[in-house]
Design a protein that fits this description.
Distance between the termini: 39 Å
Helix content: 25-40%
Structural class: alpha/beta
Oligomer: single chain
Order of helices and strands: EHEHEHEHEHHEEHEHEEEEHEHEHEHE
Strand order of the largest sheet: 9-10-8-7-13-14-15-6-16
Length: 378
Amino acid sequence: MKVIRVFLVDDTAVVRRVLSQILEEESDIEVAGMASNGAEALQRIGRVEPDIIVLDIEMPDMNGLDMLRALRASGSSVPVLVFSSLTERGAMVTIEALLLGANDYVLKPSMLGSVNAVREHIRSTLIPRLRQLLGRRAPIVAPPAVAAALRPEPVVKSSFRLPDLAAGQVDVVVIGVSTGGPNALSDLLPQFPADFPVPILIVQHMPAFFTKALAQRLDRICALEVVEGLAHLRPKPGQVILAPGGRHLLLMRDGDAVWARPDDAEPENFCRPAADVLFRSAAKVYGPRTLGVVLTGMGQDGESGSRQIREQGGQVIVQDQASSVVWGMPAAVMQAGLANAVLPLAEMPAEIMKRAAVCRPWFSPPASSPATTQDAES
């Protein structure tokens, strides 16, 4: 079993000590090194060659954002997990870190009441994310024969497009995304022109402060209008509505009008917002004119909703494994046989615009030359 080598970067000695103690309790994890600021970390990382970095943002001398810039500018692709505060300031800098090349984030514990509660929070959130980003699973404590039976078969990496079955008109695009989402969305959405002919609604698994910061950041870099769906809104072409953190996003019809509204129903797939909730409501309101898109993320949120989209005659496309930070959500949809296409993220904008242009001769997507994908075997 290959051990996961973790490098800790935090300016607080107590935090470094607690994190180190918790990580060293795991048989498949070791702390490869520690640093109290970004400059110190950059000097040491090359020598210890960690598998992953856990990074604080607010530090003296060189903060986490400056360290990330320097790390990625050097060509390093070592995964980075941001250790973030659940505050408005923490959300803003975390989104910036994710757009600079951090792979994911974990919230620092706050107001938990006891040392044991703090340690359990870190153990239950940080350790699964470390393994997830490196494509690892927790060690299986079972007899060898049982462990072998529990071990899943490797997933085949491939991209494909099903033979087109006279794809119909698309009136709405709904997107579900989780781990790696901010980066994926910042690559995807700026490719769309301001006259994109249908609304786009997105579920990104994030807390409230974070979705607000993400919507503001995406709005600055996109020709589309990007808003957080905090109130009843009428979706319109050229607009992106992002589900607010901690609340679902629903589509509903009132006569001839369609509304998007937040909803406080119970979490689904341990998520709120959940892509399944949005996808189901889109299938109900728009029927066969729904295009579902499932991007990088852990778990299987989006699979059930994609099934309903397909049952109503709609279309579903998903991100491929090679371009995903975590190939969980897209894999679940593909393995259930629900994907019309499995494509690299770079090909997604052209594919979505091509489908949105059906029955709209006036809409001409920007010229592009995406790589050719392989047709799926029937």
